[in-house]
Amino acid sequence: xxRRLRLGMVGGGIGGFFxxxxxxxxxxxxxxELVAAALSSxxxxxxxxxxxxxxxxxxxxxxxxEMAQQxxxxxxxxEAVGIVLxxxxxxxxxxxxxxxxIHVMCEKPLATSLADAEALATLVAKQSVxxxxxxxxxxxxxxxxxxxxxxxxxxxxxxxxxxxxxxEWLASDVESTGNKQATWRTDPLRSGRAGSLGDIGTHAFHxxxxxxxxxxxxxxxxLSTFVNGRRVDDDVQMLLQFEDGAKGMLWASQxxxxxxxxxxxxxxxxxxxxxxxxxxxxxxxxxxxxxxxxIERGSASTATPVRLPPGHPEGFLEALAQLYADFADAISAxxxxxxxxxxxxxxxxxxxxGMRFIEAALKSxxxxxxxxxxx
Length: 375
Prior knowledge:
- By secondary structure, the protein is of the alpha/beta class.
- It has helices at 17-28, 43-52, 64-73, 90-99, 114-127, 141-151, 180-185, 188-191, 196-212, 316-336, 348-366, and strands spanning 5-11, 32-38, 80-84, 103-106, 131-133, 158-166, 216-224, 235-242, 247-253, 264-269, 273-277, 283-288, 291-296, 372-373.
- β12 and β13 form a beta hairpin.
């Protein structure tokens, strides 16, 4: 069996959801070994968190730039890093590791400005490292099956794409109660100017492009803030214009009471349609005139990789694990000097498009929901 890749992590200290999710996902397929981390900017918390995940004290850092430099200088230094930080730190952390020649898996959004995202893409190309963006929904087996079916022409020419991502957890002023996740996500200095737009709207946008196989050309957006005193948007509604003529609608809301996490996608073509929901992630509905099929993950008709047989559900962690498996494959190809085949893995270009989407939506809202191009 091939040696595990040495992995580092920045952010994601003990008590946070996404850090634990990334650590579990990276180990599911036994492709990575976590050996170093900067889990907190607090020395005490960093040390405590490192001990709990079995990282040696001398490989625990409080500064990600120091970590990048020191790990790059070690003969047994990390080969890849997972960045699980608040949005405003994504760019600077990613830049530090890319400059050090270390492969990166970064949470979205890529940055808090399009200029930073583009600068990072230029650096990635210069350093020739593998760079992945954690659009986790791209790892679900039935999302990949939907993408494959659209590409194969199973529903004909795509006409309409509808995507929604409703959540309820910010329906009240929870940021004032000490909820740490809500506090930074509603602080424009840490989340960027986009609230729900950047947090979950980017996931919805990526899913729409990922499955449809089309790029969004322009958007007409209305961002709203329903909770009094909140400094960022908590509801996003927009129209989408795709490059090949398809039309779309996107709704992302964190004030939608009754929905804990309701991501759903519907793609309509001139010969059929596909629909998928994260609530039932192991099922995909394929409809044609007079016929409706429910395709189950792992069934004989699917061509996507699975870890468990039908009837044994896979979920969020397995989807994120699939991204890490793809990440490991890309790094292995890089080490061998072999060109990568077409990959399902979201990369730096996807991250830049996510920032173009955010910028266009903000411009559209400021211009009374007029249609704005993704420049």
